[in-house]
Specification:
alpha/beta, two-stranded parallel sheet, 9 strands, 42% helix, 8% strand, globular, transmembrane helix, glycoprotein, transmembrane, glycosyltransferase, transferase
């Protein structure tokens, strides 16, 4: 009798254990939060619409508006890195932005010669608050620039007149600064173009066989300009006094350096530093942000709305190389591009020892744009709204 009882007891115990386990599992499913299912991927048309919408958004506009207002009211924008640089480099209170000559003491005694006076900054006793007395011409330029910050792709067709060109240029060469330039002797080919555009005051001496010697337009970024503004008479014309310099503004405080350089160097340089039309800036910014958004979605599989977590959306901007290419597209009948791209065995810049890219731009997004610009310009977003025939663009690698 004992053996059957043991067998029955064992079976009963097994049933109880299985039931308890089933109850425990059911209880966990009941109290556990439901898993969020990933949203289905957007179809191509809906994704493109999302990318266009996000690319058109400018999160920096409110901050920029505040900075412009502060400058117009005579205050250095507290949020601008350039304003902090002025405080650090100038050490002058208050700052005066007038077209008059005020000698600044030189370290070790003495004064700068008359031609080297810093005409914008008058050293006065320090006060509790900094005050800018801004020249009326600078006020007008600042207001006009901010008023033009709107989406108007038709600006491309107006670039020849905006740059005071009598007509479109037949052939143009854009010379970048990539180390891949040293792989070929394109110097003579570059110089054979009607106009040559160079970037950020890159050196020519010693590299003529690779990059040529001719320069008709110089494009610089705000960091290069700030270095120029710190020099006596703002020397920023290594290609000659008559070569026009173009700069795009992404912070209102950059106008301080533009004003400083134009006022100090106007007597010795035939061409002032010009700020590009703000409508072109908006067009370029939308295009590169679109390609950056698309690359982010493709590379990560995440929603496009999460892009700003991987980028400083308010500071995101395009390179001076992209600006030069867009200007050339607007003013030239044929565009040749040299020295754009990278390679693991080439330096970042042909004229320096820098090997890595700076984390300031999304170069991969810009390269994707360049590919479409050369191969299928009709698909480039925002550009196709310009009603503008994109000229042939050829990239030499």
């Amino acid at each position: 009798m004992k053996r059957p009882l043991r067998r029955s007891f064992a079976v009963l115990l097994l049933v109880v254990l299985v039931g308890a386990a089933s109850f425990s599992a059911a209880l966990r499913r009941a109290v556990a939060p439901a898993r969020e299912e990933a949203p289905p991927p957007l179809d191509a048309a809906r994704l493109n619409a999302t990318l266009l919408r996000l690319a058109a958004a400018d999160p920096s506009e409110a901050l920029l508006r505040r900075d412009v207002d502060e400058l117009l009211e005579g205050r250095l924008p507290a949020s601008a890195a350039r304003a902090r640089a002025w405080r650090r480099d100038r050490l002058v209170h208050p700052l005066h932005l007038h077209h008059h000559r005020f000698p600044l003491p030189r370290r070790g005694g003495g004064r700068y010669p008359d031609d080297d006076h810093d005409v914008l900054l008058h050293p006065l006793p320090r006060h509790d608050q900094q005050q800018l007395h801004i020249d009326p011409a600078l006020r007008r330029a600042l207001r006009s620039w901010h008023r033009l910050r709107r989406y108007d792709p038709a600006v491309l067709g107006s670039l020849p007149s905006l740059l005071s060109l009598p007509r479109r240029v037949p052939t143009c060469a854009i010379v970048g600064n990539s180390g891949i330039l040293l792989r070929a002797n394109h110097g003579a080919l570059i110089d054979s173009h009607d106009a040559v555009f160079r970037l950020n005051n890159a050196r020519i001496a010693g590299y003529a066989a690779h990059v040529g010697t001719k320069t008709n337009f110089s494009f610089i970024n705000s960091n290069i300009l700030h270095l120029c503004a710190r020099r006596p008479a703002c020397f920023c014309h290594p290609y000659g006094h008559g070569v026009p310099i173009l700069l795009y503004i992404c912070q209102a405080a950059h106008f301080l350096d533009v004003a400083a350089c134009n006022a100090t160097s106007s007597s010795r340089h035939g061409s002032p530093i010009s700020v590009t039309d703000a409508r072109l800036d908006v067009l370029c910014a939308r295009i590169v942000k679109y390609y950056s958004l698309r690359r982010f979605v493709t590379a990560t599989g995440r929603a496009a709305e999460e892009w700003d977590r991987a980028h400083d959306a308010a500071m995101f901007h395009y390179s001076s190389g992209m600006q030069a290419i867009m200007v050339a597209v607007g003013v030239c009948d044929r565009v040749s591009v040299f020295g754009f791209g990278k390679s693991s065995d080439a330096k970042h810049h042909y004229h320096s020892n820098q090997k890595a890219e700076l984390d300031l731009h999304d170069y991969e997004a810009e390269y994707a744009f360049y590919h479409d610009l050369a191969e299928q310009p009709q698909v480039v977003p925002f550009l196709k709204d310009a009603g503008f025939a994109v000229p042939p663009v050829v990239f030499y690698h």
